[in-house]
Amino acid sequence: MTSPIAGGVDCDLHPAVPHLTSLLPYLNDYWRDQVVTRGMTDLVSQSYPAHSPITSRPDWRPAEGKPGSNLEDMKAHVLDPFAISYGICNPLYGVQMVFSEDMADAFCRALNDWLVKEWLDKDARLRGSIVIPVQSIEKSVAEIERCGSDPRFVQVLMLVMGDMPLGKRAYWPIYAAAERLGLPIGIHAGSNYHNPPTSVGWGSYHIEDYVAQAQAFQTQLTSLIVEGVFARHPKLKMVMLESGFTWLPSYLWRLHKFWRGIRMETPWVDRAPLEIVRGNIRFSLQPIDAPPDPATLNRLFDHMQSDELLLFSTDYPHWQFDDEAVLPEGMSSDLVRKIMIDNPHATYGRLKQPAIKETTP
Amino acid sequence: MNVQFRDSPEPASSVHAKTADVKTAIADCDIHPARATKTELYPYLARRWHAHLETYDKHPYQGMMEGPPYPKAQPNASRRDAYPPEGGPQGSSLSFMQAQHLDPNRVVLGVLNPLATGQGIRNHDLSAAICSAINDWQIDKWTSKDNRLKGSVVVANEDGPAAAAEIRKRAGDRNFVQVLLLSRNVEPLGQRRYWPIYEAAEEAGLPVGVHAFGFGGNPITASGWPSYYIEEMVGHSQCQQTALASIVLEGVLERHPKLKMIMIEAGFGWAPSLSWRLDKSWQRMRSEVPHVKRPPSETIRDHIFWTTQPMEDPERRDHLFDVIDVIDWVGWDKLLFATDYPHWDFDEPSRVLPAGVSEANRDAFYLGNARRLYGLA
């Protein structure tokens, strides 16, 4: 396993909660009793079934337990071999699927506290995302404020599929709190399954849902842009996590055309959509939905018309790349440095300058 | 295009890009004929449905009775200059369509895609009756009066057997060149309830066009209903992508190797990124879909045609044509020119292709591909 440079920031790591019972020490008496007495099951989302190929790269799959549930494995698989300076932990645990806002709040608080104690306290390279009980805007804001006092939390985490489009004004207090505390909003692939996972209904297969994540990111970007989130919060950064990015250029070509035609419908959108994307939106590197041919890939980077949009990620332990090398072939050393170091630091204001001295090839 | 752009702060180089004049005959693969009056269809409908419509109206998979749930940018989403002089909505007069569009733009083949049909109606008997009436109406009012125009067989999309029966009834009738579905239905278009449609279309030798739009009760995002018309307009592309993914992953095109499909009014710039994502996911998870034997991208390349309107609008116009020339995931042999007449986002034939496209590719783009696909060579 190799990385072209040391000191990269891995913006999408997934530490797994071994089981709901792992959160019991972090719940109050009432909720501990609820979990035990009612025989609540583990909150496993069908987005990443434990044994699905996408859920873990084969050589990262542990002999037992959930992929990503062991810190020593994460160090050995990613943090050490790729000489990572910071790794941002985005826990994917099914708290968004819960219908009760009180239960969601209890579980999110426990999840965030568990992340601090079991991961951030144990490895100085790790940073965290605040998982919020999005079932209640008020409780989400409170959780952002509670966790935000710990500088190791560098982002707020939401899922790309939920109850409402993310640009809707009801969510804006969350964005205001994040902007105030210098936290980007990370939007990760996944759903609470309260709506069909495609805009044309329920498909038959897991693979279909996975492919459809990309389309969900597209509709969310439209919503965020046209509702005016970035006119109100011009400094707010949002990071699309495990979204894919090769769809971005053609998506913007279409959005731009319609925005020019019917911008009278949303007059508060004060900049062209592609300017908003360049200023406020970032994308994690994996998955790279493109052929493994450097000429095509570089042409696609060219279509993005900016080298500031991508943030390095392994998506550990999800299976996104096969080779020993953590980056695809053919990227210029300049782009490598931007994606692995400069862009993440420009996005996550709470990261300090690289702790490890980097060695440029 | 008759939309007045406001002064835009961003550089829109495409507006000034050099374009080539069209001097040759063209095929327009997306024309929307309309009815002049509400009762224009009655002569083609059984009497019981007249009373039914007067009493209960259409009862579609959405709430608004008079118009679309997202108000359009212009009345009927159509050009303000397209109202016929004799009255009626845009697209409802053959003579005006001839004078405003078919004659001056040298359209020698125009494919009619009626939109306000029986599709998306919850009462499936009514859906089938209106669709069949629309098909008769297309012959009477349009295709029998102007042989440049060809119809689309519209079908009761949620009732597979009824839809298949309508297709078989029209098979061999040269007034029709395709079966027309919309992208948004009760389920994704690869689902089994729609299989009889594909079977009958392949049997009849008719391609299946999937036009953006429609109602099936599902929110137009995977996170519920958005606020604005622009979200619906842009969102049609995401609907089309997931509908096509469903068709490929359910194995529809592998079971019907002769079937061709046309993605209408949903763009084509997304074809490469969707194909790559499908291929990569299939390499990982093909054990879940053992019936999918070929890489999805190959199936898409072999079976799918794309109408061009609305042409995507990049800052740098060469980027769009990279999708065809450099990246080569959408062949010049699979593109079909369309204007979307009389809708507001009409693409002007003389302005869609940049200078420098070879004569063979231009001919294929404007006319040759459509003639070959529709068997009118």
CATH superfamily of chain A: Metal-dependent hydrolases
| Mean pLDDT level of chain B | 92
Approximate strand percentage of chain A:
5-15%
H and E string of chain A: EHHEHEHEHEHHEHHEHEH
- Overall form of chain B: globular
Count of DSSP strands of chain A: 8
Output the number of helix runs of chain B.
12
Distance between the termini of chain A: 16 Å
| Helical percentage of chain A | 25-40%
Poorly predicted sequence stretches spanning 5 or more consecutive residues of chain B = 1-18
Largest sheet geometry of chain B: 8 strands, parallel
Radius of gyration of chain A from CA coordinates: 20 Å
Q: Order of SSEs of chain B, N→C?
A: HEHHEHEHEHEHHEHHEHEH
The CATH topology of chain B: TIM Barrel
**Greatest interface (CB-CB under 8 A), with counts per chain:** A-B, 75 and 78 residues
Please state the structural category of chain A.
alpha/beta
Q: Can you tell me the CATH architecture of chain A?
A: Alpha-Beta Barrel
CATH C-level class of chain B is Alpha Beta
CATH homologous superfamily caption of chain B: Metal-dependent hydrolases
Any guess at the CATH architecture of chain B?
Answer: Alpha-Beta Barrel
Order of the strands making up the biggest sheet of chain B: 1-2-3-4-5-6-7-8
Structure, described:
The complex is a heterodimer of chains A (361) and B (377). By secondary structure, chain A is an alpha/beta fold. Chain A has a single domain (8-347), classed as Alpha-Beta Barrel (TIM Barrel). Chain A has helices spanning 29-37, 71-79, 101-120, 137-148, 172-180, 206-227, 229-232, 248-262, 273-280, 294-304, 333-347; strands spanning 8-13, 84-89, 126-131, 153-161, 185-191, 238-241, 281-284, 310-311. Chain A has an 8-stranded parallel sheet. In chain A, strand 4, helix 5 and strand 5 (185-191) form a beta-alpha-beta unit. In chain A, helix 4 runs parallel beside helix 5. Chain A is globular and about 55 Å long. Chain B is α/β, with parallel strands linked by helices. Chain B is 35% helix and 10% strand. Chain B has helices at residues 13-16, 47-56, 94-102, 124-143, 160-170, 195-204, 229-249, 252-255, 271-285, 296-303, 317-322, 359-373, and strands at residues 26-31, 107-112, 149-154, 176-182, 208-211, 261-264, 304-307, 335-336. Chain B has an 8-stranded parallel sheet. Chain B is globular and about 55 Å long. Chains A and B meet through helix 6, helix 8 and helix 10 of A and helix 7, helix 9 and helix 11 of B.
